[in-house]
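Can't paste images in this forum, so I'm doing it all in text. The chain is below; anyone willing to post the predicted structure tokens underneath?
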Amino acid sequence: MKIIRIAFLFLFLYCGLLNIACIESSTSPSEDPLILFDSNRAFDILKKQCEFGPRPPNTDAHRKTRDYLFSELKKYSDTVTLQPYTSDVDTNSIPPERITLHMNNIIAEFGNDHSDTLLLAAHWDTRPCADKDPNPEKQREPIMGANDGASGVAVLVEVARVLKEVPPPRRVIIVLFDGEDYGKTGDQMFLGSRYFAKNMGKWKPDYGILLDMIGDKDLQIPIELFSWNANREYTDAIWRRAQKLGLAPFQHKLGDAIMDDHVPLIKAGIPMVNIIDFDYPYWHTLEDTVDKCSPKSLEVVAKLVINIIYEGL
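Text version of the structure:
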């Protein structure tokens, strides 16, 4: 009788432990940041931006997109800020006219109880002229910017939702830069990142990652050369992490040096790496549209970014 009672006791304990294990296994996936990222939701964010139309500064579509992105980030962070600034630039008209652009960087903060700060950035404006379009008659028309602008933003807004669900082990600042793609020359481009680099204040990061043109269906991401030359160890660690995660589009080879929003941050002393697929045949053309992009590409880049947020390098 005593032996039978002991057997029942062990059976009871075993079943209890088994139930606990089952409960844990059934709930843990919902707490896995990689599983929480929804590539289809991110792709919807990409499409939503494009529904506003081309989004160069000083347009109604630009203002509507600003309000949309601010409200989306506000769902996931109590600390979302518009960083307004202006810049005098030349228009694309003939002859060009001098105008003042009114712009806003959009900044969201997460994990403010940590001191280690990671900056994640993308640009949310689009180019006012399709200067690379094969049809010369269309080169003054504004581009849709599905990949060149909307793709990086889409990933970061969806990452913000993940950060809300699973608080990060480090401070994360998401900055959506304005005025990246406006001018004909470099001195009238990267306006938002230049302004931010001079006015980082409480948002000054320890290191950062820029996402640009990462939605291409045929995604191929070599190591951007400015990033490599400025911060070789940090850049190499990112691509090696991508290899470890089995993310094939990340090619462990040197690519071109690309002027982009990471350069002003590098000049300000911030280790900053640009994740970009610049080999995109629709760059600055009217064909940079939603159908050229893929949820899978957004997911590939997001997996790397989320892993770095939660695991570090």
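The chain has ten helices and eight strands. The domain at 33-311 is CATH 3.40.630.10 (Aminopeptidase).
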